[in-house]
Each structure stands twice: as structure tokens, then as C-alpha cells.
Amino acid sequence: MTLCIPRWISIHINKLSLGVYPGEVQQTSFLHNMELVRRLYQQFSAAGIGVELVKCPIRSLPSMKQTFVDPETGWTVVQEKSINPETGIEVFEENITNPETGEIFHRNRLASYQESIAEWVQKIVRMRETQTRFEQQTLKRLHQLYPELAAGAEVPRGALGKIKLLFAEEFAMSGICLPEEDVEGRQRGKIIKDGWEILYLFGSDELGEYLDYYASHRMTNDRHVRIYSDGQRKDLSSLRDFRQVSQDPQENIRLKEEFYAENRQVLTMLKEKGFWD
Predict the structure, then answer these.
(1) Cα(83)–Cα(10) distance, rounded to whole angstroms?
(2) Taking the domains of the chain in order of start, what are their residue ranges?
């Protein structure tokens, strides 16, 4: 099997070509398309199907590029039609500009995927409304965890305020924050709540004091993060939950060994930090 990844996605299974467009995603294309590839990759790998990632060229058709104002919304549209020479599947690359704010939104869609500019704009509006509601809910939970924020404070009172704030922002929807006594005493600890298992410790280096935490939840990937007292955030190595596979038996063995070797290294590092026995 080949996952062919240009700006859009084509999946080749033997001689059958299937175009895939993430219709639920409208605002960006490349990153969300790559997320779709990752999900497909996980599903195929879990099923034992070999997956190969390759780049497929796209040939632009400049004569098919046009710019116009959508009569229903008043948004400016730049639309260009492209074709993959290997599959013959046609794709539209589109940018739309909000006439009031100047914001530009981008998408790639299959020519067979019919959605008007007005429908796209409506999805953008709904997405913004959902984002706003989530931010409001997160802020409400933060104020419940740290009432001083509701009173106008920029960070929670006490030691390591920025660390406490950034940690709480990450888990606010689950009502999780760092125990104050652990922060004051710089003590390591564990939080188990709302499906999360979070291990944490405090330390310092040339950049200052920091909090390291390792968070696991069955509904998402593990995360291993360092937060410094000045608010800097750094992603650290975490256990991988899926691996690349190959139809070539020897290559597949090599990939499997690399996957487990990397996870063993991460596990050793976590044990040395005292996160796991």
C-alpha cells in the first residue's frame, strides 16, 4: 500500500486509487491532511497492513486559476485547479478572504467534493463559536481552580505562578491543578483524575526552575513536558504508541526493532527520573 501525500491525499491499494478529503476540516489543509494520514497510518498498521509513504507530484493548470467575489458572502475567492498526473484526480486549491477582517482561510478539496463558499464560511463561523465556547469554559474552570485569576491576577498566587498557570491550562477541563503543598516544597507527586495519570517532579538547570510532567490518558497520546518558571514550555520524549511497518519482511523487522529500542530508551529515561519503577 502507498499513502501518497501531496497537498491533498491519494491512497493507492494495488491499482485502485481512492481520493480522501477531510471534509470536517476547513481552515487549514496541510497540517490537518497530515493528521488524517497519521490516523489512517495507525489504523492500517494496527491491522498489519504495510504502509509506504511517498510524495506524489501535482501538476498545476495555470489556465484554471481564477479570482472572484462570491456573490452570496462577499468574500474574495482565489481558486486554482490541479491534477495528479498519476491518478488523474482533480483537486481545487482555494483561498477565501474575509472582507471585514482581512483573514485568509485555505483548503484543498477534491473536485468531486461539492461545497459552496457560503457553506464553507458557515463552517468557519461555527468552528470559531466552538473555539470561543471552549476558551470560555477553560477560563471558568481556571477561575474555579484559582479564584485570584477571576479577581484580575495574571498568575496564581504563591511560588512558581507561571508553572501552575500553564499546567492548569492544560488540564483545566478535567479540574486538575498542582497541589500547592507540592509546589511549595518542590515535591514530586502523582495525580489520577478524570482518566488522567500525571506524574510530576521539580528541578532546575541553567534556564531556571522547572516542572517536568508525564501525562497518560487512554483517549490520547502520552505527553512529556517541561515548563520553566518564566513560562517557557518544552516537549520531551514520550513513549510511542504506533510504529511504521513495511511489506518487505527484513525492513519490517528493522522498523520493529527500532520502534522497541526507542521506547526502551524512553522508558529507561523515565525510570531514571523516578516516574516509573
Answers:
(1) 12
(2) 2-123, 158-238
